[in-house]
Amino acid sequence: MEVPMDPLFLAWSYFRRRKFQQCSEVCAKILEDTPYDQAAWSLKTRALTEMVYIDEVDVDQEGIAEMMLDESSIAQVARPGTSLRLPGTSHGGGPTPAVRPMTHSGRPMTGFVRPSTQSGRPGTMEQAIKTPRTAHTARPVTSASGRFVRLGTASMLTNPEGPFINLSRLNLAKYAQKPNLSKTLFEYIFHHENDVKNALDLAALATEHAQFKDWWWKVQLGKCYYRLGLHREAEKQFRSALNHQEFVDTYLYLAKVYQRLDQPITALNLFKQGLDYFPGEVTLLTGIARIHEEMNNIPSATEYYKDVLKQDNTHVEAIACIGSNHFYTDQPEIALRFYRRLLQMGVYNCQLYNNLGLCCFYAQQYDMTLSSFERALSLVASDEELADVWYNLGHVAVGIGELTLAYQCFKLALANNNDHAEAYNNLAVLELRKGRIEQAKAFLQTAASLAPHMYEPHFNLSTLSDTLGDLQSSYMAAQKSEDAFPEHVDTQQILKNLRQHFSVL
Amino acid sequence: MSAAPAEMKEHAEANAKWLDAHYDPVANLYTFSPCIALADLQGDGESKLVVGDLGTGLCSMKLKVYRGTSLMSENTLLDLPTGLVSFHMDQHEPRTPAIAVASGPFIYVYKNLRPYFKFTLPSLEVNPLEQEVWSQAKEDMIDPMSLKEMLEGIRDKADIPLSVRSLKFLILDPKEMEAFVNLHKQQPIRRQTVITCISTLKKNMADEDAVSCLVIGTESKDVYILDPEAFTILSKMSLPSAPTLMDVTGQFDVEFRITVACRNGNIYVLRRESPKPKYCIELTSHPVGLVRVGKNVVVGCAQETLQGYTQKGKKLWTVYLPAPITAMGLMDHHSRGFQAVLVGLANSEVHLYRDKNLISTIKTPDVITSICFGRYGREEGTLIMTTKGGGLMVKILKRTAVFEDRDMAPGPPLAQSIRLNVPKKTKLYVDQTMRERENAVAMHRAFQMDLSRLRLAVARAYVKALESSLTPVSASLSDPLKMNAVVQGLGPSFKLTLNIQNTAVCRPVMNLAVSFLYDEALYSMRNAFFQIPLLVPGLNYPINTFVECLTDKGISDIIKVFVLREGKSAPLLTAHINMPVSEGLALN
């Protein structure tokens, strides 16, 4: 005879095995029988929350509205080295854009894609809206929409018969009195329902009930304020929570607030303060390294990533960033070691093989180069990745002098990603070698319009126009190139020549 | 305009090192570097300037002594001076040096600015045939015309050249010959040589005020060393050619070196106990200046070059000068241990070289003919120059002056010698290159095989892309087109901009149409098919259309754009537009 397991225990067991769907079904059954079973209710809220839970510490994407309609910014022109908004202020002596390519934001390419590395800070509203808004690169309007909306769609799609808890009918004051229920309820409202206003109400009532002594509620209040864009209030709550209890998460949230307020130096100090309490804490060290990287101080970022690796030698982000830094500082053989380490750790994707192939090529390990790219091609998940692999293969083909192959590769990169500005630029150079000037010019113009942050198409256009005798266009393109990369010597040279020419005429 | 500040800067730079102590453009002083010396003539601790003035030609040759800015004394010289040195003759106190002035075959020695002694070079051997001819003439056995014929015969054949008297006789007109013979026939024939250069050599001590011997070079290709007190010839050495410039170092009793630049364009080095030159430096042009710096010899050549040699004749360097050399001198600053070569140039500049590096330039108002650096008055670092126009210039080296040891002359920039910060090659790199070296053949084969496979894969993908016209760039030669698409807007309404460009050189394209392919559940378009106007080459045609997003689920999709030609089913171009998520609806 089969003895049925206690359903609540079964649900608990499912929950611990992270089988949230089964857990929530079992709980729903219990709640049908006994609607006032608080344990089951609480467990179900937790299961539903866990299904859509994302770590609030990491996920952050600045929306257009936050960026363009920024009220908290004090100085429009910050002093160099104190702001994240001036990407050009490199003070670390890292490689120039001629060596290390730039992202859309004008920052050197990083080794690890994070929300903040992907999104740049466009100069004008028009640029913000105009940037090729594909599913991958588009910037959300506000951080309240965008990713949270997309991640939160789970709740909209999975419960066709209506939400589990009807928030509008909930007596928040009553639940705030019950600490055992209120915390799970808050997390459900915040993460699952994505209803920040109700979550804030609940948190405010609960912290009042706890006589403003519970640091957890203060952190939650801070999170709500942060979501709502009330950064100063969030800062106050996090600071107060830190007074009660030193906690790594709180430090990370507070640092996020400071980064949003564009105070990277304060954030760095905060991280260092946190490291005094939690020496060797990986997340804090990573935070420091990221800020240094965003401020273009690549050498010290690398130092901190190395510290991270001393604590945690399987930290993917640190390995990838150090590897890419070695690659761009002319030590591909060391970068190869780092990427191989990633491979050994079980990271098995297109990007990694792509990087391995490039490292092999530049470290003269030719027998493994093309097989790595082949592997990368077979692991491709999206058209963008495919385009990048073709683009890199084009580079290898240029390197071995196979210009026809290179031409085909760049064309394929464009076929897979119509907005691949680098491929347009390289294709233009190849067309120019073939003597097809009109084509080359059209490609360069396209590349320049697709990626205004790159100096290469502007510079190439400038030299092309210069040789054609179109000095006016040459001058205009050279000026744009200078904006993108002020230290570029060849641009300076061409500008000097043109100015001289104009003054002589 | 840019030249003026540069000149001022140069001027300021020269001013930073030298004080203009005195300039008298009408000092009426015409001399060369060998005829100028600085000496404490009275033993009062103040150096005077002693100049052998060449005068204006044949007359008014003078020995002038300057003290401070004024002329102290003046002695008339009988003949043109060829060299002037000051030297200590004896050990008597007070230690006042004597002045030796070489002119013609004589050395006039002055002490306390009074004539003291006259040394005459030993006369040379006379051709016995010549002697006999003249003795016949003396007894009136031959007439002047036959005398002339016989002398001409001797001149052409004999080893020993004729005396000055015979040579003078030979150039006379036949009318004057009689008188000349009558005037001179009673005197014995003598053949005399002349001094070409003079220098001093310490006798047996290296002190500043030690007794020095005189060293003279003569037209007869000899070098003599004279005893300082008795003026007897201590040593005689012969050279292959007539000396013109001379530099002496060492002590007579110990070891010495005489570096002599000769008229045949060679430099010879003479040493003690060797009557013949020890080393020979063959120059490519005539030497015009000779200075010894330490153990090296710096020679100024007529080809506007300055060349450095070791003592043994090994060439070290060559510097090309902007103008011919007019004067050369050594700048030896004892208290600072600083030695350099001063070179006066015909473009009114004085360059200061340390080794091959130009370390300073002085602009002068006139061309320098003589140059001398040393102690003048009580000032140790004084530069004395006389100019072509007879001027005298005195400059004092500032005590704060610092000479940087770098080249001011144009040439390879300083940056060339800065080492670049090239990352060191790691051990890993070396190991990998070792692997590459050992398995070169296998690696090459693997690479070639992979490359062939890759070519195939690329060709397949490329053909596929071409067949379905996936690329945003048209490959066909008849319609070279290019398109890229931009999406604007936040949703639910988006604006699509297609930038279409005809990249042909001069042919327009017409009869084109655009159509869109999209999921009708997600998007709706006002018109999904329309015509494109005629495309003029080189211009960018932005074509706008509007897309409406229908879903509120926060999903996005791809919209495909095709550019079509009328009457053809396959598209010319395809572009994939990754639509952004519509946020307008999702926010509600």
TrEMBL record, chain A:
GO cellular component: BBSome; ciliary basal body; non-motile cilium
Keyword Transmembrane: no
Domain of life: Eukaryota
Segments for region (Disordered): 85-141
Alphabetized Pfam families for the sequence: TPR_16 (PF13432)
Repeat (TPR) residue spans along the chain: 387-420, 421-454
Alphabetical UniProt keywords: TPR repeat
GO biological process per UniProt: non-motile cilium assembly
Keyword Hydrolase among UniProt keywords: no
Alphabetical list of SUPFAM superfamilies matching this protein: TPR-like
Protein name: Tetratricopeptide repeat domain 8
TrEMBL record, chain B:
Keyword Isomerase among record annotations: no
Keyword set, alphabetical order: Acetylation, Cell membrane, Cell projection, Cilium, Cilium biogenesis/degradation, Cytoplasm, Cytoskeleton, Membrane, Olfaction, Protein transport, Sensory transduction, Transport, Vision
Keyword Protein transport: yes
One Pfam family per UniProt: GAE_BBS1
Subcellular location: Cell projection, Cilium membrane; Cytoplasm, Cytoskeleton, Microtubule organizing center, Centrosome, Centriolar satellite
Domain Bardet-Biedl syndrome 1 protein GAE residues, every copy: 481-583
A GO CC term attached to the entry: BBSome
Broad class of the protein's primary localization: membrane
GO biological process terms held by the UniProt record: non-motile cilium assembly; protein localization to cilium; protein transport; retina homeostasis; sensory perception of smell; visual perception
GO MF annotations in UniProt: patched binding; smoothened binding
Location of the Bardet-Biedl syndrome 1 N-terminal domain: 18-271
Highest taxon in the source lineage: Eukaryota
Oligomer and partners: Part of BBSome complex, that contains BBS1, BBS2, BBS4, BBS5, BBS7, BBS8/TTC8, BBS9 and BBIP10. Interacts with the C-terminus of RAB3IP. Interacts with CCDC28B and ALDOB. Interacts with PKD1.
PANTHER family: BARDET-BIEDL SYNDROME 1 PROTEIN (PTHR20870:SF0)
Protein name: BBSome complex member BBS1
